[in-house]
Design goal:
The structure holds two protein chains of two kinds. Chain A has 14 helices and no strands. Chain A is mainly alpha-helical. The two termini of chain A are 32 Å apart. Chain B has nine helices and 21 strands. The chains are: A mainly alpha, B alpha+beta.
Chain lengths: 275, 364
């Protein structure tokens, strides 16, 4: 049983995992410490935990709204993106419009430039449209940004669903919508979930665009963190720690429950019918 | 009630001609088999009827309604493909029910229809099973049931039992026959398997290279093919063909016949083929009137205990299928007779020569 090689592997794996987890552990633990405790050197590993930070946290102005913004924006934007992507990738997969390959490449191009490069034109566009600090405007941006990757993921999945399904449904009295939502959709559910998770995490963590084209009414948590950091002379460490700890919970829960879909998503649907 | 009428139907894929100017009617309440070798255009023809492909030119009518431009959904048909297509992840019952819901049938009617087809197809015990857990044959039954339960006017089958194991094949065939008689539907059944076509069809349309060569009931098609192709493609083994040089004359003689045979050589063909089915050749170990002498080169047992004999007559090879008793009795030397009523003549173009065969009076 006790294969020394195996034990060694396990130790190495744990060491790596703990190394990467340590900043998260640090911030999560910090949310239960006092202000002085957080900054103590050497770091306190054993301390009397306190919930004061959380009590204080909920008295802060606007925190509720930050959360609401984050949740609503990411869920709404990603759902919209997935609906559009599903229809688009069905079209790419089945009707294969001319230059499908090139179109798919163009779609992805927005993801090829760093966000810092596209942020200026986006800012100018949004001010011109009067969409700055506009909830719908920002949602549209995030949806737009989530679509290319979703189309790529979903096209792989839809390609994997034989056209015979479409034809069977069509000749047996089904409409295109019936084919799309009753026949194809259930078979690409893993792809939809993978696309949702990937894009949800992206929007959830997005800072730059929200900072530039957002404003008071559309502030999400990443932006709130930056603003909150430099509160009254110096870092507001307890606030940062508490906010971060609550903030990382939704993605962790989502990833924990949908791990297997993330894997299929990363393989672009090439692992088929296994989920 | 829906007669399918195709008019001058043509389908080209680039330079390939899949369907070449087909004009045909498929009658109501009958099973018509489209029979032909792989790649002869039968599946394409079927897909055009279903509306899954648009013809390059020509028209499709259901009764007198032109449906050439209609979508598959508007055509009110059912179709079953070669590979079982079921909606994964849901139960058999739900699979059968989906199209019925689409048709907006009330719950009670849906249940009744599903129970009906399930009973005929032998699916009644697995209605609640998830289709993902079923084998291919059962899935195909589900696919058949789904097409039939809607009771469309027209049902198209595209080689539905090719990929099914032999046991389930018999079951499915029986079920298909029963189902087809129930609702007066027009059924087109595509297959490359002649046994399937012979046993299922009211009529067979024989296809070759995008053309329907002949269309007749199975027995006539088999006995009187009007083209060399029909003779060769049908039967196991196919028809014997013996070439004759007649040079425009109207008389045949050896090696098949003991005395001259007159026929009507309308087109003054120079070469003709004499066709006769292996099972129609009479073989005997003893000489008899009208029989020619041949050398037995090989014999083998085939299905049903019959013997397949390879007989050489003046350099021509004939295959004959004979009963066990004859097969066992024959030795190297055999006597072969080709009854005139079983002989078909084909002209230079491979088409049947419409003629009577009259033996010339023996010279006194």
């Amino acid at each position: 049983m006790k294969n020394p090689r195996r034990v060694l592997y396990n130790i190495a794996l744990w060491a790596v995992a703990i190394f990467f987890f340590s900043p998260i552990a640090w911030i999560a633990l910090a949310s239960f410490k006092t202000k002085n405790g957080i900054l103590a050197t050497p770091p306190q590993l054993i301390f009397a935990p306190t919930l004061d930070n959380y009590a204080d946290f909920f008295t802060r102005p606007n925190v509720g709204q930050y959360f609401l913004n984050s949740i609503l924006l990411s869920v709404a934007a990603v759902l919209l993106a997935i609906l559009v992507s599903f229809l688009a990738s069905y079209c790419f997969s089945r009707f294969q419009p001319k230059a499908t390959g090139f179109l798919m490449f163009l779609l992805l191009s927005i993801r090829m430039v760093p966000a810092a490069a596209s942020v200026v034109p986006v800012f100018l566009m949004y001010t011109a449209f009067g969409w700055k600090d506009n909830w719908l405007g920002i949602m549209l941006f995030y949806a737009m940004f989530s679509i290319p990757f979703s189309v790529w993921i979903l096209k792989g999945f839809i390609d994997g669903v034989s056209q015979r399904y479409d034809e069977t449904a069509l000749v047996n009295g089904g409409s295109r919508l019936h084919v799309l939502f009753k026949v194809v959709l259930p078979q690409v559910r893993p792809g939809l979930i993978a696309a949702f998770i990937f894009n949800f995490i992206f929007v959830w963590n997005e800072f730059l665009i929200n900072f530039i084209i957002g404003g008071k009414t559309t502030t999400t948590i990443p932006t709130a963190l930056i603003i909150g950091v430099s509160n009254n002379q110096g870092m507001d460490w307890t606030f940062v720690a508490t906010l971060t700890t609550i903030y990382i919970l939704p993605p962790i829960i989502a990833i924990y429950f949908f791990q297997k879909y993330l894997l299929v998503g990363m393989t672009f649907g090439t692992v088929r019918g296994e989920v | 009630m829906a007669e399918i009428r195709l008019e001058r139907l043509r389908k080209e894929y680039g330079k390939t001609l899949a369907v070449n100017d087909i004009t045909i009617k498929f009658p109501t309440s009958a099973v018509t088999c489209l029979l032909g070798p792989s790649g002869c255009g039968k599946t394409t023809l079927m897909r055009i009827i279903a509306g899954l492909e648009a013809p390059t030119s020509g028209e499709v009518y259901f009764d007198d309604v032109r449906v050439t431009d209609k979508t598959p959904q508007q055509r009110n048909i059912g179709m079953v493909f070669q590979y079982p297509v079921v909606y994964k992840g849901i139960s058999v019952y739900h699979n059968l029910e989906l199209p019925l819901i689409e048709d907006k049938l009330p719950e009670a009617e849906r249940r009744k229809r599903i129970d009906d087809v399930a009973q005929i197809l032998g699916l009644e015990h697995m209605l609640n099973k998830n289709v993902s857990s079923l084998d291919n044959a059962t899935r195909q039954k589900v696919a058949v049931g789904r097409a039939v339960a809607r009771q469309p006017q027209i049902i198209l089958f595209d080689e539905p039992i090719t990929n099914v194991d032999p046991n389930s094949r018999v079951q499915l065939k029986t079920a298909l026959k029963r189902l087809s008689k129930q609702h007066n539907q027009t059924i087109i059944y595509v297959t490359h398997d002649q046994t399937e076509a012979m046993t299922l069809a009211d009529e067979i349309a024989l296809m070759k290279d995008g053309v329907i060569v002949q269309r007749d009931n199975p027995r006539s098609l088999y006995n009187y093919p009007n083209d060399v192709f029909g003779g060769w493609f049908l039967g196991n083994p196919g028809m014997n063909f013996v070439e004759y040089e007649v040079n425009g004359q109207s008389e045949l003689g050896g090696p098949l016949f003991t005395r001259p045979i007159r026929f009507n050589n309308l087109n003054r063909d120079k070469h003709i083929s004499v066709g006769i089915r292996p099972e129609h050749i009479l073989v005997s170990p003893q000489p008899s009137a009208g029989a020619v002498r041949g050398q037995l080169t090989r014999k083998s047992i085939v299905v049903g205990g019959q013997y397949l004999l390879f007989i050489q007559i003046e350099g021509k090879m004939l295959k004959a299928k004979v009963p066990t008793s004859v097969g066992q009795a024959v030795a190297q030397e055999v006597w072969v007779e080709c009854p005139l009523e079983r002989v078909t003549l084909f002209g230079e173009q491979g088409t049947k020569i419409e003629t009577e065969l009259i033996p010339a009076q023996p010279v006194a």
